[in-house]
Every structure is written in C-alpha cells, then in structure tokens.
Amino acid sequence: MRRLDVFARVALLLAGCAFIFTACGGGNTSSSNNTNTGASKVSVALVTDKGGLNDQSFNHLAFQGYTKAMNEFGFTKQVIESKNESDYIKNLTTAAQGADLVFAVGFLMQQAVYEVATQFPDKKFAIIDGCAVPAGKSECATLPNVAPLYFSEQEAGCLVGAIAAQMELDGKSKIPELRGKNTIGVVAGESIPPVNRYIAGYKYCAKQVNEKINVLVTYTQDFQATAKCKDAALSMINQHQADIIFQDAGGCGVGALDAAEQEGVFSIGVDADQSQVNKSVITSAVKRVDTSVYATVKDFVNGKFSNNPPLFDLAHDGVGYAPVSDKVPADAKAKADELAKKIKDGSLKVPSEIPA
C-alpha cells in the first residue's frame, strides 16, 4: 500500500509539472508560431535577368539577399531564371501570379516591369538598377507599386580607379609586374547606365590621381559570353600593354579576369568581391545588391514598402571596394580611402557620365 501511495503521489506531481510546463511553454510556442505564421503569409519572388544566378555578379548578389530574407521571414522560395530578354514579361507575370512582392534583377527589365506592374496593381515590384518605363519611352513612370533600387556605381568605380591609377604612378620599380605604359582598361558589357556609371567613376578618379594615365574602354555588347570579354581583354593587354583590367560585364567579364591571369597582369572585379573567382583580382568595385534586396523585403514585411527608396551610395554603405590583395601597395589603398572620405563629406562629387 505504501508503494502504491508513493507512486500515486509521484504521478500527481508529474502531472502537475506537465500542466505547468504546457501552460507556460505553450504560451511561448504560440507566440513563436504566430510570428512564423505571419512571416509565411509573405510571398516574395525573384526574377533574374539573362545573366542568371551563376554570373558571380549582381544576379548572384540579389539571390544572396533574397536567401537571407527567406531564411529570416520564412517565405517559400520562388526564383525564376531568365535565359533571354524575351523571357522577362512572361517570367515577371508568372512571379506576380504567385507572389506579393516581385524582384526584377536588372536595368534591361524596365519595360517588362512597367507592363506587368500595371497589370497587377495590387502586387509590389522592385527593380535593381532601374525603374518602370513604358514601351517606346525613355523616362521613368512613377508607379505606386514599383520601387526602383539605384546605386552610386560611379563612387565604387572611383575607388578602384584610384587604386589602379596609383599603382601605375608607383611604376615598375615598386610593382615589377607592370608593363610600364601607364595604361589600364575596362571591359564592359552593354552601354547602359549602371555600366557607364562604373566607367565614369573609374576614369574620372584615375585621372584625378594620375592625369597622364591612359584608360581604355571596350564594350562587348554581352553579359554572358566569357569568350567575348576574354578577347577584348587580351587585345588591351597584348596590343596596348594594359596592366590592370576592370571587368564591367557581369558573367561575361569572368573571361576578362581569365585573360588577365593568363597574361600575368592584374584585374578588378565588379559588383561582388571576385577575388575567389580568379587569382588575378586585386580588388573589386562592390555594389551591395544583396543589402538592397534584403532591406526591401524587410520593409515590405513591416508594412513600409516605398516607391521612392533611398539611393544606395557610399555614405549609406551601398557601394564600396572589396579588400585588396597583397599585390596592392599601401599608398594605393590609402589613395582610395582618401577619396572615399571626400565623397562621404561631400567635397568630391564623382560624375555619373563618362568624362571625355
């Protein structure tokens, strides 16, 4: 009888503990589930441009920001990769049918965004490097459901241009790999505003540091075919003795980095830190597309979506330059930092148009 009495008391005690635990712990679980349920109601889609997710550049960065937001806010992955420009309207339409917020990655999607956003006025859209532009027009249309996400690429271009120019100024005595012709180059994709803003800053600040420097620019009219960019870079290196090649062509530009490595010269990456892509890379002009995507999703989740978001510039950590390799002399990095300080305090205005 005593043993049964003991067991009964233990059972009652355990039951009481279980009730208390359920009551207290259940409240926390309910709160957590409510949060997750709210997040799961958010639906976000990402549509790449024709460069695709593996461009090691801005599509890749957009996906990184999207993934961070997806992990934090708990929405279901909806990513559509475009293969051609003709895919844009179709892919954005598909995305809008299944999501409340749709990201269009790239300037080339401006007209497609306008067409689809006007068809889905209750859905929100954000476009990297562009705005909503009606067919046959060149100016942006202000739509309440479209957020244009812009960057000051010219400021990032300025900083890496300063590094390149200072290295040329230092010369072969300090950097034996240089060819001694005071020449650097840019292998670009298509002549579109974000590409040209990078070039504008690169050339302007290179000339500020080294007024006699020769800056070559070649447009390949491509963001994908690495062979085109490699050929353009090889021409700059072998025919014009360029020492440093800045790739400004997305996935195509990886070919320019390969050419630099092959010929034993230096290269500069674009958008993301591309030092892991190729060992010739001494730094990269960084555009924090990932930050813009994540911030836009966060605002949307919190009911703060805006069709007039702030500019992602150097002062707001929207652009910059990646850590430099050990091939970059201290004075070159110091020159970039000096110009960065001037940009932030407003004493240096970097043009967005390519100087003559």
TrEMBL record:
Location within or outside the cell: Cell membrane
Domain called ABC transporter substrate-binding protein PnrA-like: residue spans: 44-352
GO CC entries: plasma membrane
Sorted UniProt keywords: Cell membrane, Lipoprotein, Membrane, Signal
CDD domains in alphabetical order: PBP1_PrnA-like
Keyword Flavoprotein: no
Residues forming coiled coils: none
Pfam families listed in its UniProt record: Bmp (PF02608)
Signal peptide boundaries: 1-23
Stored InterPro entries: BMP_lipoprotein, PnrA-like
Keyword NAD included in the entry's annotation: no
Top-level taxon: Bacteria
PANTHER family listed in its UniProt record: ABC TRANSPORTER GUANOSINE-BINDING PROTEIN NUPN, TRANSCRIPTIONAL ACTIVATOR PROTEIN MED
Descriptive protein name: Nucleoside-binding protein
